[in-house]
Amino acid sequence: MTGENLTTLSSRFYTDPAVFESDKEHVFYRTWQYVGHVSALPEVGSFLTVRIADESLIIVRDESETVRAFYNVCRHRAHRLVDGEGCKSRFVCPYHAWSYALDGKLSQAPKTEEVPGFDKTRIALREVRLELFAGLMFVNLDDDAQSMADVFVGLEQELLAAKPALSSMKLIFKDQITHQSNWKVSVENFSECYHCPVAHRYVTSNLYSADRYRVTIEDYVVRHFSERLGDRETHGDLYVWFLWPNLAIELYPLHRCISIRHFAPITPRTTVYTYLWFVDPDLPDDAVAEVAQLGETYRGTNGAEDEAIVAAVQEGLESRSYDVGQLVIPPQLTAQSEHAVAHFQRLYAQALGVGDSST
Ligand code: FES
Ligand SMILES: [Fe+2]
């Protein structure tokens, strides 16, 4: 693929509502989707609700401390069971008060004792596959999907070798930016650093080198690396693992903290970009404050810069003047290369079952 002339996806893939529906079906309802770090569910009954495209899910720690996922849909007449997050001993539906235990089984349903043949032991919330992966929780709505260990071969060990404390990290900052762009525009923008020296002066002057940036592709994982500018001993370098299709785990060169980046598709032209910053539990307070400060600074620098870029790209994709462009992939795969964009588009075409998505 190196040095090839490759074109981008045709613009309709970023604008057509029918393509967006197909993306949900072929990508988001069949791949492993990040739903949080285990620290979000500290005790029995801790739960959170998440959306995977149009589907709402409950993630909960049950009585046996197992983390489980269920569709957030009451089995009676389909009311949403719960909102937000918190801690509960059972879930009571706000419509007719059917209640469910933490393992999803129906425990009470008012007046049903009087209904002949009503067997509450046969009713339970519909469960969704959930796997823990280096302290991160992932769900997959496809019952036949390969396990995470089979999709991301060797990756859990690699992540834990790079950051042994991954599952005990502490969340210290979280923010979201709504991108006015299709989710693929946002992910493709994340996948290359060709634009970094042009658009990201703050991070490439203070944190890591734009020249030493390298991106390597391998099946469902894309790795990014760059050297920390300045004190590499204290802060380490930048390592990024991008997991198909919409999650990045970054070992970030500021006190070796972890930054998680997630792209959630909302509409064909809206994507919510969430970024979370985690630190080692024993990191000194002044260092924690520095990482939290970067979280704040990020919004006004890199975050705002990418937000403006993706909105301007989406506008161009809507133009009648544009259909396909050309990717820049020099043979040496330097920092200024878009090979990971090509790789993303290849995985996308494969997911949709189309050979050539430039048409
Ligand atoms: S829909 Fe939930 S109890 Fe009726
Ligand atoms: Fe960027």
Secondary structure elements and pairings:
Elements: E1 6-7, H1 12-15, H2 17-28, E2 33-37, E3 46-52, E4 55-61, E5 67-71, E6 85-87, E7 91-92, E8 99-100, E9 106-108, E10 127-133, E11 136-140, H3 148-151, H4 155-162, E12 170-179, H5 183-190, H6 196-199, H7 201-206, E13 214-218, E14 221-226, H8 232-235, E15 238-243, E16 247-252, E17 257-267, E18 270-279, H9 285-317, E19 326-327, H10 339-352
Antiparallel strand pairs: 1-19, 2-11, 3-4, 3-6, 4-5, 5-10, 7-8, 8-9, 10-11, 12-18, 13-14, 14-15, 15-16, 16-17, 17-18
Bound molecules: FE2/S2 (inorganic) cluster (FES) and fe (ii) ion.
FE2/S2 (inorganic) cluster binds next to loops.
